[in-house]
Amino acid sequence: MNAGRVLWLSGGYLAGTFPSTLIVARLRGAGDLIAASGRGAGETDPHVLMGKRLGPAWSTIAATTDVLKAFLFVLAARGWGHLPTGWLAAVGVALVVGHAYPFYAGRMAGRGLAAASGVLLVLLPLEMTIAGVLFLLGAAARNSGLASTVGFGSVALVAAIQGQPRQFVVMGGAIFGLILLRRVEGVRAVIRSGVGPGRAVLYRIFFDSSGPPARRWPARGRARQ
Fold first, then answer.
1. Of 81, 84, 92, nearest to 124 (Cα)?
2. Is residue 151 within a helix (H) or strand (E), and if so which, with residue range?
3. Which of 19, 54, 80, 159 is most buried when burial is the number of CB atoms within 10 A of its CB?
4. Residue 128 in contact with residue 93, Cβ under 8 Å?
5. What is the pTM of this model?
6. What percentage of the chain reaches a pLDDT higher than 90?
7. CA-based angle 214:216:221, to the nearest 5?
8. From CA 80, how far away is CA 99, in angstroms rounded?
9. Rounded Cα distance, 213 and 123, in Å
């Protein structure tokens, strides 16, 4: 096994662990945000909390940093490391693993979406563009959780249709699997709230939510009262 390639793979994981949300929160003195962050629900994701407590500008800075750390590292691995397709795909997966499962500051870890976006923008740009459009449409319809599921779930399929290298198709599927796996961590908390196991899994995996998306907004009848 080539030692240089292993170093790039290890570096990908380490780059993925870069704690952008933690750094921004500490720069802003937002200790309450750090304390409230957790891995058990999308609602306690540090990016989400940052948008609510510090404003969208700071949340955007943190999210953009997470995208860039993956984007720039994959560019470096391809341009300077001259890694073959299989190793580039492995580095891409390692970056998302590091982002979602860091060995430190785990409470402030992301759900993998930002790092995945950076990886895919380099290696599968068309597929990521389609996923991004789907996400924006879902966000406009106030269902960004389901939109991210459909968007990132489409990457491997579109890559296969486009005739992308098999390793990149597998990478797209693996990244999607990591995103779903990260969401499953919140299933127990949803069950403890009184939701049945089947629905809890459905809400967490497909909607990245602790309950039906409809609960986030008042019903039309109530809104008129």
1. 92
2. helix 144-161
3. 159
4. no
5. 0.89
6. 57
7. 65
8. 22
9. 32
To the nearest 10°, report the CA torsion of 173, 179, 182, 186.
-120
For 9-42, the pLDDT digits (tens) are 999 999 999 999 999 999 999 899 898 888 876 6
Roughly what angle, to the nearest 10 degrees, separates helices 56-79 and 46-53? Answer: 140
Q: Which residue has the tokens 């992301």?
A: 110
The answer to whether 46 and 21 have CB atoms below 8 angstroms apart is yes
Q: Please report which helix (H) or strand (E) contains residue 187, including its range.
A: helix 187-192
Give the C-alpha distances (Å, rounded to integers) separating 167 from 9, 90, 99, 156, 172: 15, 9, 21, 10, 9
- All residues at 6 or more sequence positions from 80 whose CB lies less than 8 Å from its CB, including other chains: none
Average pLDDT over residues 32-53: 83
- Domain spans, the chain: 3-185
- Quick: pLDDT tens for 124-180: 999 999 999 999 998 888 788 889 999 999 999 999 999 999 999 999 999 999 999
Q: What angle do CA 42, 48, 143 make, to 5 degrees?
A: 65
